[in-house]
Amino acid sequence: MSQAIWNRKDLIDIESVSVEELETLFAQAEVFKASFGTRKKFDTLRNHTVGTFFFEPSTRTRSAFEVAARNLGADLLTLSESTSSRTKGETLRDTARNIRAMGVDMVIMRHSAAGAAAYLANVLDIPVINAGDGAHAHPTQALLDAFTLREHFGRDLRGKKVTILGDILFSRVARSNIHCLTKLGVEVTLAGPITLVPQEFGNYPGVRVAHDLKSALSEADAVMLLRIQHERQTTTHFPSLGEYTALFGINEERLAWMKPDAIIMHPGPINRGVEVESEIADGPRSVILKQVTNGVAVRMAGMHLCTLYRESLGEK
Ligand code: CP
After folding, report:
1. Binning pLDDT at 50, 70 and 90, where does residue 82 land?
2. Alpha-carbon distance 223 to 50, whole Å?
3. Ligand 1, residues 55, 58, 66: which to mutate, most atoms within 8 A of Cβ?
4. Which domains does the chain have, with CATH numbers?
5. Distance, CA 304 to ligand 1 centroid (Å)?
6. Each residue of 10-44: pLDDT tens digit?
């Protein structure tokens, strides 16, 4: 591994993370992943407590962070919106400062408001890792996606082509992936309903917006499918889910447009039969469950690096 570079106590987005830091994180995640199945535990977070604040639903991200924290030796403190005093009007700042006063050493937070994680990182002297803030960023999802692509295609992703298909407009996964993949030299194509693919994203270096689904699929080395995020949509962006499936859903006919060795990715949760047919989601071209496994390794790496950085500053 080249010299390890990691200069941040928090992981809030991908924009601010350098390519060198990305490489450091991937190298660390490779070390952690190599331990899977050996029952080996690490002690970066021994005698540390990690607080997980999930103010939006989650299966994969929350569970992966909890498994990752335990693998690093941490104790866990979990908080959710409906069972916390946030329902009685307590501010996010007060909630976080109270938890910090109990001795929590790191916060992992998912929140519906874009910017919530950055705000908390300024309030707290401990690492804050963004587990998704509104439609803004989902950095660890992008990192696990890139890690999965590196595992499949090799560490140098320059020149690879990834098509992101679906609801780009409301997707923090798409935004973080656009930043992460283009930093790694991947050519990104965005496709989906015209109302859900912001045309201006095509002005970003390394990104194009495709209007022809066949070309978007046939050129790709990997196709990343996104679900329609009804929870963030305030108006209707296309007539019905049936029409989305008819126009953009991945079925056997559209799978055949793809290169024979191109892979199918999805951050989950999948809406089976909508953005992808079940047989394809579970088929040999799908790396969806590998993404989930890699989510544990990547989150271990993020927690490990943020903790070491903070402790290198001499802070307890
Ligand atoms: N990919 C993802 O963020 O899934 P969850 O919403 O289940 O955490």
Report:
1. confident
2. 34
3. 58
4. 19-137+293-312 (3.40.50.1370), 139-291 (3.40.50.1370)
5. 21
6. 999 999 999 999 999 999 999 999 999 998 889 99
